Structure formats: structure tokens, C-alpha cells
């Protein structure tokens, strides 16, 4: 198992380097010019100097190498400095945003909590709703509950978040006036009232996201339970007189959780990146919104860094899912 | 045990034509022989959701493509005196902030959205089947092609799609004109970012098929690789490809609408369902019904296609058929 993990970790390095190269080369084709906003009165020599200060105008491979060094060597040092008060990174150039002329990672760190709160809560809520639905609709296959569950998850698959989000805004904000339609990220929770306000503003984005997550995971749970319910060991368990609850909730459930847990792990990167549209609809000031803003403002270092962070998360959680699969299921030990 | 070894003996992936009837169905032998597709149709008919999904999808496609011949109002005709009207006989869906007829715009938008969905699905399907068949059939290509598939699966797709829209919009607009250019761009972008699931499924099926006797028989008769793929392999992996096709249309339509909704899709004066929805959110408080129509159209289309795919999957799976 350990060798497998190490082998996968080693394999992840060329994958990540390849992805970073793809993202880098794709962005090099961009037509935008960071100097477009500079007034025309600035003489061309000065513009050339400014361009050099941003690291442009050098050969491609040097730019790529510099970006790699900044991302993998300097930024971790900044993080260590921040926590331990050391000064490893003093004087080193960091990845600079063209929009704000400040380090990209600082802005990303500011935005991550909002995304994590909204999307993370939605993920947990979605899973908590999905698991019981999946279990019960597999246990009573083709009952009305199963049919209704199938329909709801089909709707969850089919209704895009930019429609369901707008729809709940129309119903609950415009007509009923129960919840605010815009997520206020500057809101500070310090007493009961502000906590209630926080809950109220989180309900709609969380529900919209949770509908999609529930749709996917309840389907997986149902299919996985159905696969296991007809196995021989279930008949054996019933034959030796175990109660129905023990058979389903202990024997079957534990075995059917194996693929579901890996699916849940595979979905984690989408917590960080997949909520771009929902964040846009509810004006949540998170990572997805940052990416959209950066794309519209032609802020290439920001786009590059964010896209690469998403890629790192996807590769990382793929790895975790594979290792989990091996750990949970002794039949699959990759040696 | 490696992944691959576990995969090959999985009888569940056996294609429909090769499975013998179960022993309990002896009276079936006295009936006249039926084709595979008649059986598939019988099973498909019993899935009520799939049947209605298919009918609804056909209805939407017909309305969207033939509707403009019946409802002849020009979707770009501006009648500023009739702006922001509610539903009436002259304008069943009302008019927008410039007095353009919403029904005509919905049909024009649907034509674009459905065309993008179908074209992107065909591209993804072609790419996916090609790579899947190549990887499954030629052992030497298997490793590299599957690594490529894994790489593509590890890419963050929505951010990359957005970046691609930003980068290639201008050059393509210059070459093909604003509407053609963006159509080609969106179809290609969705196509080359969504072929991976098809490739994986097709590869798995081809790997299982390659070990069967009829392939060996064909090989011993001197069938060339090209003929083998075209005559023996492809017809037998048709069922997973068809299921991927229906689901591919659904994802392509949603992705296109999402891009338009984020303002990175078709240009503002060129209606698609996503664009109409995006434009309507500005007037959310005054005219909420304008959000409702395009959103409902997207959701219904995708829902019908999903049900259709679900039914097809059941109908084409010989383990379920006949139950």
C-alpha cells in the first residue's frame, strides 16, 4: 500500500508539470496587454521598463521557470514566514496580480474562507441528505419513494444552478422577502442576531448547491446499495437470524460505502472551484468570482495561479480517492 | 491484482448481440426470430419516463427548428413602443425591454442551444470513440492514450473553458464573423473537454470484446484491422456510445448556457437560452417570468434528454431486458 501511494505521488509530479505547462502556454497566447491601462502620456521607454518589472519580454522558458519557482519555492516560504515570523522570503519576487499589483496568493487567501463556508456547508448538507435517500430508495426499489427520489435527482441533474439560483431568488427574496438575495461577505458574526443573519444569507446558495450534490451522491449510494443487497453474504446474514436493521445498516451499508466514499473524495475539488456559477448568482465574494473577475480584466498571473490551484486539488483528491479505495477494500490492495 | 485484470472478465459489459437467451425462456424459441432492435424497442417502451423524455425532446427540437416557419416574427425586430409587455395574443411570451418578441427569441435561442449541444456531442463522441477504440484495440497505444485521458480528466474544465473563450474569441471572430466564429469556438471547446468518459467506457468494452471468439474467427479469416474495427468492434460498442451521446447533449447544452450566462458565450444581440436568462436577470424584480421561460426550456430539454439516456441504458443492457 505504501509503495503504491509513493508511486502515485511520484507519478503526480509529471502530471502537474504537464498541466502547468498547458495552462502557461495557453495563457501566453492571450492577446491582452497589461500596459493597456497606462496613460498615453507615459513615454515608451518607461512602458518598456514597467513591462520588464512585471517579468514580461523574457524568453518563454525563463518566464515559465520563474513562475514555477515563485509558485513552488517562494510562496511556501511566505507561508512559513507568516506563521513562524521568520524571514526566508525577504526580497524575493512573488506572483504579482496585474489588477491590484499585489501578490496573488494574498488575495486568494482572503477569498478562500467565503468559498469554503458556503460551498463546504453545501457539500456536507448535500451528503447528509443524499445518504439516507440513497439507502432507503435502494432498500425499497421501485417504491413510490424510489420513484420520487429518482425524479428529484433527475431534476437536480437537469436544472442548472444559474436557473435554480435565480428561481429561489425570485421566490424567496423578491416575493416572500425571507432571505437577502446578495451574500454579504463583510458580515461579522459576533452575537446571536448576526449569527441568524449569517444563517439566513447562507440558506439559498447552500440549498442550490446541495440540490446538485444530493442528486449525484444519492444516485451513487442507491446503485451501490443495490449491487450489494443481492450478494450471497446478505442471504447468509439473514439466514443466521440477524435483524433486518443489522443486515442493512451494518453489513450492506459498510460495503456499499466503499465506492461512495471515493466519489465523495473526488468531489472535494469542486468545493473550491465548481461553485463559480453559484458564487456569481448570489454575489459571493469567493474564489470563483475572483477567477471570473480576473478573466474579464485580463489578469493573467491571477488566472494562471487559480487554474493551477484547481488542477493541484483535482490531482491531489484523485490520489486520495485511489488510496482510500485500497484502504477501505482489502480486496483491492494494489500490490 | 491490477485494475486491468479485474476488468476483462466482467461479463456485465458483454454487448447485447452476444448474450444468449436465458434457459427459462424456452417458449421464446417457438416464436419467429426477432431482431435485436425490436427487443430494444420493446424494453424502451416499458420505461415510461424514457418514452415521454424522447417525445418531449423531439417536440422541443421540432418546435425550435420548424417553429420560425409558423411564427414568422423576426427575433431581432425592435418595436420600442411595445416593450416590456406581458403575455398577449400578439406576443404569447410577452416582449423584452426593446420590444422584441420573446417567443421568436426563445425559438431562435433554442435553435442555437440545441445545435451547439448536438454538434459538441458529435465532436466529443467522435473523439472519445476514436481514442477508446484505439486504446482498447492496439495494446501499444493503450498506455499513452489512457495517460492522456487521465491528464484531461485532471484539468479544471470550467476555468479552462472560460480561459479558452477569452483567448480565442477575437481571432476566430476575425476569420469567420462574430456568430460563426463563436459557434465554432464553443463547439470545439466543449467537444475537446468532454470526450474522456466516452473514451474510457468504449475502451473497457473493446478490451472485453477483443477476447471473444467471433473476433478470433474473423481474425483467422484474414480480416484486416480496419475492417475488424469497422465491421465487428464498432457495431458492438454502439450501445454505450448511444448512451454517452444522449448524456453528452445534456452536458453540452448546460455548459453552453453557463458560458453565455457568465457573459463569455455568444454576443449579446445573438439569443441563446443562456443569454436570454442572463439578460432577464437584470429585470428580475419587475418581470420574473422572463427568467422563467429560458430557464424552463433549458431544464426541460436536459431533463428529457437525461430520461431518454436512462431508458436507453436500460433498453440496451441485455441483463435488464426481458425482465
Automatic annotation (TrEMBL), chain A:
GO terms for cellular component: plasma membrane. One of its GO terms (biological process) is transmembrane transport. This is Peptide/nickel transport system permease protein. The lineage of its organism: Bacteria, Pseudomonadati, Pseudomonadota, Alphaproteobacteria, Rhodobacterales. It is found in: Cell membrane. Belongs to the binding-protein-dependent transport system permease family. The chain crosses the membrane at residues 116-139, 151-175, 195-215, 257-277, 308-328. Keywords: Cell membrane, Membrane, Transmembrane, Transmembrane helix, Transport.
From TrEMBL, chain B:
Keywords: Cell membrane, Membrane, Transmembrane, Transmembrane helix, Transport. The keyword Oxidoreductase does not apply. The chain crosses the membrane at residues 50-71, 116-138, 150-168, 180-202, 237-266, 291-309. Pfam families: BPD_transp_1, OppC_N. The keyword Transferase does not apply. One of its GO terms (biological process) is transmembrane transport. PROSITE patterns: ABC_TM1 (PS50928). Gene3D superfamilies: MetI-like. InterPro entries: BP-dependent_transpt_permease, MetI-like, MetI-like_sf, OppC_N. Belongs to the binding-protein-dependent transport system permease family. This is Peptide/nickel transport system permease protein.
Amino acid at each position: 500500500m505504501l509503495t503504491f501511494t509513493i508511486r502515485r505521488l511520484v507519478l503526480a509530479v509529471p502530471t502537474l508539470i504537464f498541466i502547468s505547462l498547458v495552462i502557461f502556454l495557453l495563457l501566453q497566447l492571450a492577446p491582452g496587454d497589461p500596459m493597456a491601462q497606462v496613460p498615453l502620456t507615459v513615454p515608451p521607454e518607461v512602458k518598456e521598463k514597467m513591462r520588464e518589472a512585471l517579468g514580461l519580454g523574457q524568453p518563454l522558458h525563463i518566464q515559465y521557470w520563474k513562475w514555477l519557482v515563485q509558485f513552488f519555492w517562494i510562496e511556501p516560504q511566505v507561508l512559513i514566514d507568516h506563521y513562524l515570523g521568520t524571514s526566508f522570503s525577504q526580497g524575493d519576487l512573488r506572483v504579482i496580480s496585474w489588477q491590484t499589483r499585489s501578490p496573488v496568493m494574498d488575495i486568494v487567501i482572503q477569498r478562500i474562507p467565503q468559498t469554503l463556508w458556503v460551498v463546504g456547508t453545501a457539500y456536507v448538507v448535500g451528503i447528509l441528505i443524499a445518504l439516507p435517500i440513497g439507502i432507503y430508495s435502494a432498500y425499497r426499489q421501485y417504491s413510490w419513494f424510489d420513484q420520487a427520489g429518482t425524479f428529484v435527482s433527475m431534476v437536480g441533474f437537469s436544472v442548472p444552478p444559474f436557473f435554480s439560483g435565480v428561481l429561489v431568488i425570485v421566490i424567496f427574496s423578491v416575493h416572500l422577502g425571507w432571505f437577502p438575495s446578495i451574500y454579504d461577505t463583510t458580515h461579522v458574526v459576533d452575537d446571536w442576531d448576526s449569527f441568524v443573519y449569517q444563517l439566513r444569507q447562507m440558506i439559498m446558495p447552500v440549498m442550490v448547491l446541495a440540490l446538485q450534490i444530493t442528486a449525484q451522491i444519492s444516485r451513487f449510494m442507491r446503485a451501490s446499495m443495490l449491487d450489494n443487497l443481492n450478494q450471497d453474504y446478505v442471504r447468509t446474514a439473514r439466514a443466521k437470524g440477524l435483524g433486518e436493521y443489522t443486515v442493512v445498516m451494518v453489513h450492506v451499508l459498510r460495503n456499499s460505502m466503499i465506492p461512495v466514499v471515493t466519489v465523495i473524495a473526488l468531489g472535494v475539488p469542486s468545493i473550491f472551484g465548481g461553485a463559480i456559477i453559484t458564487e456569481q448568482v448570489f454575489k459571493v465574494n469567493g474564489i470563483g468570482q475572483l477567477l471570473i473577475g480576473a478573466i474579464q480584466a485580463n489578469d493573467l498571473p491571477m488566472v494562471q495561479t487559480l487554474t493551477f490551484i484547481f488542477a493541484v486539488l483535482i490531482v491531489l483528491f484523485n490520489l486520495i480517492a485511489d488510496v482510500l479505495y485500497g484502504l477501505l477494500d482489502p480486496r483491492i490492495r494494489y500490490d | 491484482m491490477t485494475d486491468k485484470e479485474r476488468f476483462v472478465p466482467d461479463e456485465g459489459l458483454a454487448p447485447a448481440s452476444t448474450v444468449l437467451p436465458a434457459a427459462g425462456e424456452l417458449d421464446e424459441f417457438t416464436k419467429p426470430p426477432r431482431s435485436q432492435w425490436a427487443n430494444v424497442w420493446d424494453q424502451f417502451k416499458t420505461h415510461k419516463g424514457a418514452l415521454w423524455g424522447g417525445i418531449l425532446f423531439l417536440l422541443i427540437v421540432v418546435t425550435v427548428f420548424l417553429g420560425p416557419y409558423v411564427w414568422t416574427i423576426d427575433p431581432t425586430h425592435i418595436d420600442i413602443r411595445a416593450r416590456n409587455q406581458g403575455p398577449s395574443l400578439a406576443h404569447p411570451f410577452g416582449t423584452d425591454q426593446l420590444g422584441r418578441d420573446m417567443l421568436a427569441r426563445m425559438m431562435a435561442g433554442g435553435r442555437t442551444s440545441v445545435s451547439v449541444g448536438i454538434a459538441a456531442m458529435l465532436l466529443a463522441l467522435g473523439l472519445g470513440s476514436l481514442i477508446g477504440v484505439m486504446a482498447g484495440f492496439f495494446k501499444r497505444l493503450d498506455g499513452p492514450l489512457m495517460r492522456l485521458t487521465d491528464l484531461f480528466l485532471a484539468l479544471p474544465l470550467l476555468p479552462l473553458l472560460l480561459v479558452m473563450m477569452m483567448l480565442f474569441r477575437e481571432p476566430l471572430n476575425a476569420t469567420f464573423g462574430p456568430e460563426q466564429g463563436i459557434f465554432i469556438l464553443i463547439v470545439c471547446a466543449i467537444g475537446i473537454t468532454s470526450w474522456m468518459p466516452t473514451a474510457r467506457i468504449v475502451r473497457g468494452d473493446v478490451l472485453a470484446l477483443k477476447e471473444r471468439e467471433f473476433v478470433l474467427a474473423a481474425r483467422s479469416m484474414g480480416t484486416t484491422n480496419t475492417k475488424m474495427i469497422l465491421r465487428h468492434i464498432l457495431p458492438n460498442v454502439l450501445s454505450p456510445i448511444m448512451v454517452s451521446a444522449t448524456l453528452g447533449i445534456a452536458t453540452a447544452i448546460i455548459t453552453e448556457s453557463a458560458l453565455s450566462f457568465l457573459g463569455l458565450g455568444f454576443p449579446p444581440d445573438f439569443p441563446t437560452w443562456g443569454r436570454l436568462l442572463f439578460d432577464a436577470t437584470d429585470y428580475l424584480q419587475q418581470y420574473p417570468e422572463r427568467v422563467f421561460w429560458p430557464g424552463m426550456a433549458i431544464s426541460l430539454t436536459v431533463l428529457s434528454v437525461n430520461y431518454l439516456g436512462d431508458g436507453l441504458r436500460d433498453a440496451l443492457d441485455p441483463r435488464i431486458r426481458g425482465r
